[in-house]
Amino acid sequence: MTGQSIYGSYREEMEQCIDEMERHISALREELKKQRGMDPVEHFLSRIKSEESILEKCDRKGLPRTTESVLFQIHDAIGIRIILSFISDVYLIRDDLAGMPEYEIVEEKDYIRNAKPNGYRSYHMILKTRQGFFMEVQLRTISMDTWAALEHHLKYKRKIGKNEQLIVSELKRCADELASTDISMQTIRDMIFEE
Amino acid sequence: MKLLLAEDTKDLNRAVTMMLEHEGYEVEPVYDGAEAMEHIEKSSYDGIILDIMMPKKDGMEVLRELRSRHILTPVLMLTAKTEIDDRVAGLDAGADDYLSKPFSMKELMARVRSMIRRSAGFGEQTLRYEDIFLDAEKFALTAGNSVRLSIKEFELMQMLIANTDRELSTEYLLEHVWNGETEAQEDTVWLYISYLRGKLKSVGTSVQITGAKGGAFQLVSGSEKSGGDQ
What is A8-145's CATH number? Predict the structure, then answer.
């Protein structure tokens, strides 16, 4: 490849999409803080997928390495991850985004109600912006994020050996324990808010 | 140490009670099986001594009933003479030990001590109700997804699964799941019921717990009654 970005001249517009989303979430946070005295958002993270990994994804999917592919065939060139305090906050943000005329929901996957077999939990949405870009939004709680981050670290350390099965099932156990704690914290929260 | 003694022969009952009390146990004497079952439902014991031949409900019935209710209190059966079939049936039904009549007080005392020494532990088995599994080895609640339960959540779930045919009152749960711990209150039961409701929902089952704060609770399948809760 030459020095030319695979995103061509679209990069700036993609960044604008992220900014718009960030501004919207910030405004929502302010509003919720006023309403409930509590900010549901722990972190707002965003990234444009690196040249290297998006080209790798083109190859994996058998797509030509073109700007057209990375913008319109692949759906996670723009990635947003919002880390929330409680499970109910995940659905609060989900509903808010779903209600916005600026975004069209292309796909939704609820890996919280239907956890992946390895224990991964998160709420995934593919949104199409006004400008026609695709954006992958991942919504998850602190616990879900903790698990995903730590599991990601371990994945690279793991050698395929005799312990593979044990490690996989133990990681799943940790995911199920964290999920259980998330529900307990939610229950305690609900109880406090009821009173 | 609190013991329940169910023996219909009045003199024998009195003598054993005195002997046990002399050894320092707190004893509640009862004279038939129905009375024994009533006491077992109401409070928790460290051990139960059950005569097999009793009016109203015999010892075997009491034993089977309490085991089916997942009450794991150790049980010592008193059998007539050397009825091997009685002893076998008693042990198979979940008795921890037996003693044939006539027995020496010394041996009875030794067997009671031995029975109490052995702690009951958890029933190592998978319980199942509708589409949910409760795995005793992993402390996991599973349907579509799975979550891990804390010990108290697990014990409460076990109790609910073992009693799907009836409602369990807050008092009953405090007595049998929290074993009368003084820190445990009505609010504790309600919080744990609420935890389990959230966890049942998260594993993707339609099984629900009915009941309101301070009241009685029951595990029901989603298609059954859904009124009253949530």
Answer: 3.30.460.10
DSSP designation for A72:
I
Using a 10 angstrom Cβ sphere, with 0-12 exposed, 13-18 middle and 19 or more buried, the burial of residue B105 is: middle
User: Between A113, A173, A187, which is nearest B198 by CB?
Assistant: A187
Element containing residue B77 per DSSP (H, E): strand B75-79
Q: What is the pLDDT of residue B158?
A: 93
pLDDT digits (tens, 9 = 90+) for A135-147: 999 999 999 999 9
Interchain pair A176, B204: CB under 8 A: no
Q: Which residues of A touch B (CB under 8 A)?
A: 112-115, 173, 176-177, 179-180, 183-184, 186-188, 190-191
| Model ipTM value | 0.77
Give the model confidence (pLDDT) of B26-85 as tens digits.
999 999 999 999 999 999 999 999 999 899 999 999 999 999 999 989 999 998 766 788
CATH of B2-117, one of 2.40.10.220, 2.60.200.30, 1.10.3720.10, 3.40.50.2300: 3.40.50.2300
Partners of A169 in the β-ladder: none
pTM: 0.73
Domain-wise residue ranges, chain A: 8-145
CA gap B229, B219 in Å, rounded: 11
Class of B126-220 per CATH? Answer: mainly alpha
Cβ of A114 within 8 Å of Cβ of B145? The answer is yes
d(CA A193, CA B3): 44
Q: Please answer yes or no on whether B148 and A190 come within 8 Å at the CB atom.
A: no
Q: Give the tokens for residue B57.
A: 């409900």
List where CATH 3.40.50.2300 sits in chain B: 2-117
